[in-house]
């Protein structure tokens, strides 16, 4: 999937069908493929949970035995971008929901606060990075600063244009520090966005997700697609690749993102760290505690 | 379960059997009750996820329409305490894992850092509170400051003794600000702790969880139980009750904590907020966008 979904400059989003399902095994064609994909996400999730635990355990061991390390302790950072209704929240619920919440570090980026605006655009992003051993997820990210900032003219063109290089430098710094970046655009169609917005209007349980400004952004669809295409073209680097996941079909989207994460973990060659204590001695100490506690079967009320 | 598991002063932990299963329906007796409980946790988890979404949606709506509110926006804070191997991590994995990770705010408290030590013991706790709309989970908490701080004599007795009142004041402040506290002691036996420590020594995949200092704390078991009993006795208030969950059986522990959370959500009378926009007008705007986009079925590549 990393090969199939990865994009490189020049990125032409119009050539990627949001309803397509690249990489889906052919044998799963037909009606039951949706159920198949949902099952796979659960299975992949269990595997992701194990890998996440190894990542966490390795970072913890490194922290307890600091020293000259071959390479810095690992962390994984999934960056999710999409148009409104693109499925960022749903992807997090389904894919991250299959992992252990203790090892997740999820951060959402909204419009910058007054304090954030007083700093460089990467300031709030640096503060939101996952600690070593964690799987971070960015629900929107620093890419908004070359997307909405560009389309809505929040800053002059010279400012957002300079940000492509700044982002590449920043991401290079991250990967040098042991962060494995997985940048994903959930790619939906204009028609699908319209259908999902209508669903939010029709279902009282979804009104809270609707914002009238979504329609304003929708009116600028082509401008946003152009901004995305340029951002992906300029910032798809070897160190920090961009993946485009066709996202009109939610079950495919979840399966594809889970698969991307699994393949990413596989590149890390994870394992459990060796014990940093004397096993025999600790067994001895534990046994001594049993004896000292006054016999067997009497411990409950102790 | 809130009635059954709630404790009040004087708390006698020795009188609570860590292998007991209060509140478990009698019909589930026998071999299959473990499977039954696991299924129930999944079902309860789905319900918790819905309630969590309502909590989040309500807070979001309140934020968008600030004004004189009847009461502050809600948040729930689960405080988990236990002896080593008591099952805090496992409970979070199972119970929180059934909820939507986007709405969770999990914070673990380890030994205080030098910076944290330069501040009042509640400083780092205040910084870790969940924002409105979130379900927070404290993996250990400010109670460590009357537990390990007391048993290991990290501060003079006068200092930790004063903390009971300080904690009660702090928690009263939180509940006044709309935080619903659920404080849970996962209550395991000395024997069960020994078995779990041995498991960590025997399984190379679990070595990373083992710390030789666990045996030192185990040697002070009675002192810790006394410290817990006094902390619960002094800080079980009407505003912020303490619950003791027998935790030798993991499946019961998870079921009981999920149930406590569900009953806690039920006291909040949650619902979805009303739309804060004109539904008819928004449908109109959405329809106009469809027309302006140049016909039907042509949107994919747009």
TrEMBL record, chains A, B:
Pfam families: PPK2. InterPro entries: P-loop_NTPase, PPK2-rel_1, PPK2-related. It comes from the Bacteria. GO terms for molecular function: phosphotransferase activity, phosphate group as acceptor. Keywords: Transferase. Residues 75-264 form the Polyphosphate kinase-2-related domain. This is Polyphosphate:nucleotide phosphotransferase, PPK2 family. GO terms for biological process: polyphosphate metabolic process.
């Amino acid at each position: 999937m990393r090969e199939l979904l990865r994009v490189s400059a020049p990125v032409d989003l119009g050539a990627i069908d949001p309803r397509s399902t690249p990489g889906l095994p052919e044998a799963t064609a037909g009606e039951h493929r949706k159920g198949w994909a949902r099952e796979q996400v659960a299975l992949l999730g269990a595997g992701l949970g194990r890998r996440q635990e190894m990542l966490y355990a390795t970072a913890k061991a490194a922290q307890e035995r600091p020293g000259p390390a071959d390479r810095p302790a690992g962390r994984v950072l999934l960056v999710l971008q999409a148009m409104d209704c693109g499925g960022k929240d749903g992807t997090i619920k389904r894919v991250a929901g299959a992992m252990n919440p203790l090892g997740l570090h999820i951060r959402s980026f909204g419009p910058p606060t007054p304090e954030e605006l007083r700093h460089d655009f990467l300031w709030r992003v640096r503060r939101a990075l996952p600690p070593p051993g964690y799987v971070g997820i960015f629900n929107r990210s620093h890419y908004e600063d070359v997307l909405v900032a560009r389309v809505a003219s929040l800053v002059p063109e010279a400012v957002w244009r300079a940000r492509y290089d700044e982002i590449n430098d920043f991401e290079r710094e991250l990967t040098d520090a042991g962060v494995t970046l997985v940048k994903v655009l959930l790619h939906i169609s204009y028609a699908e966005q319209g259908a999902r917005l209508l669903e939010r209007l029709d279902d009282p349980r979804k009104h809270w997700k609707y914002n009238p400004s979504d329609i304003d952004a929708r009116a600028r669809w082509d401008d946003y697609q152009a901004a995305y295409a340029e951002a992906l073209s300029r910032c798809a680097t070897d160190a920090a690749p961009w993946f485009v996941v066709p996202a009109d079909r939610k079950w495919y989207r979840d399966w594809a993102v889970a698969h991307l994460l699994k393949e990413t973990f596989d590149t890390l060659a994870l394992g459990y760290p060796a014990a940093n204590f004397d096993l025999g001695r600790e067994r001895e100490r534990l046994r001594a505690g049993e004896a000292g506690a006054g016999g067997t079967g009497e411990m409950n009320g102790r």
